[in-house]
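User: Structure please.
Assistant: Input sequence and predicted structure:
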Amino acid sequence: MAECKRCLLHEAAEEDTLKSIKERIDKLSEKERAPDELYEKRLSECKRCDNLISGVCMKCGCYVEFRAAFKKNNCPNVKDRRW
């Protein structure tokens, strides 16, 4: 598969990986999990970032859909935090 710059997993045809991540997100407690509106806002910011390739943040190596789901997490790009 070719790299998909600024793509989330569902856009990069990584459905199996996305399914696994969604299952893990569903298991998060309400205390751990970011509200849906915040989650979507974070993903929107990630999509505008040059460090996003095929659903992976090149700053930290995480799948952005998973990292953004945690209430306590923030953008790993310390020089240009987007969220």
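The first strand starts at residue 52 and ends at 53.
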